[in-house]
Amino acid sequence: MNREYGWLLGLAAIGLYFTGKKDLTFGGKFALSDLIRSSTANEHGISNVPGPKEVENLSRIVTEILNPLEAHYPGLTINSGYRSPELNAKLQELGYGAVSNSLHLQGRAIDIKHPRHSSYELARGVRDLGLPHSELLPYASSKGGHLHVAL
Ligand SMILES: [Zn+2]
Which SS3 state, helix, strand or coil, does residue 44 take? Predict the structure, then answer.
């Protein structure tokens, strides 16, 4: 996608989303609301609103990684997508192992889970399918059992 167009699309989508008119989807079952939802943000009254650049990155994650992976492992759920600086700081404070330079801050990382496939199987799937990624970190079930994947 053309960079400038992506940015404008992101801006328009944010406008629609936050005026409650429309959720943004990316050609599959996942929507912008799935990528910014955070129980920690809700509990602590923290704003978790991405900017246009972050929305563009989120749309790339969904179209380039999440949708193709979902096609092979139907039933994926999103634990965590975008994190605002304030949310990330709160997660660090609460000991969730968030790092200060996390790609979640840029909307370039996502934590996913599957009810029937382990994070290790999902990581293998990302590799076997040749999906792009800069980080691929499967967590043991004792540490949440999710797969962190980033563009
Ligand atoms: Zn993560």
Answer: helix
